[in-house]
């Protein structure tokens, strides 16, 4: 009974699902082209606080001073290395000359000794001066660094004051992006809701179903990720609103369903049985549920279940020709093929046959 439909019907159902999927894919691609032309970046507002002219000028002056200090330091470093190298060479030369002077003991060389000594002292003084200049540059660099740190603190204060303003600008930009996408997806959702509620029995439902699938993709992929969040209030507020709407719709649908069931169960068994679709009846009986009231069937071991104990619907009948037990919704007897699978009230209401004379 699980395969109550004909093979062509099942194949047709599968093909129509494929048509729905293909149609949804093309609609998603077409919608993607439209979405690509809309703003996509959530952070469309750059963080650019406005610094006072005084801070900008002071920052430029400190940067220029730092570059000058670094350039001068490089030059003085080269001079210091050259002075130290010259002093080291002069000292080595003087020591060698002094050793020679001691060996020769020539008094005429005392004047040259003094000259060499003075030259070495001059070179050493030049090295000391270069070291002193480097120390001065280190002090200037330290002072410049302290001034830059103070400037950095002032800039951070300006940034802290600008952050709330930037947050509002970002929220407005995100809300703008969301509203643009909502203007594109909301009509699709409304049309989809109308199609689901009004056109599910339409012969063109496979195409409508593809449109519904594409709308759901547009909602969950193209719209929901761009839902703005302002401290979580917007995102959670929208989520709560959607939950309430879905809950209201489900409650109303269930209440309407229960009202229809109560009205249907007030009708006669014959009227209710005539309203049941044969294919749906086979599927529900296979699941051990009543085709009319959808309640589970009460099965007692060793006893045939011919009626629903909840609504009294006839489930199984005996053939009027061969007395084979058949599903009451069978058109023909599954044993003899007779069409005489009627119900007691049907047979009692039928005109009696004329007597044979």
From TrEMBL:
- Coiled-coil annotated residue ranges, if any: 120-150
Keywords from the named record? Coiled coil, Membrane, Transmembrane, Transmembrane helix
Query: Where are the bilayer-spanning segments?
Result: 12-35, 178-196, 208-227, 233-251
Name-wise, this protein is Serine endopeptidase
Query: Where is the organism placed in the taxonomic lineage, from the top?
Result: Bacteria, Pseudomonadati, Pseudomonadota, Alphaproteobacteria, Acetobacterales
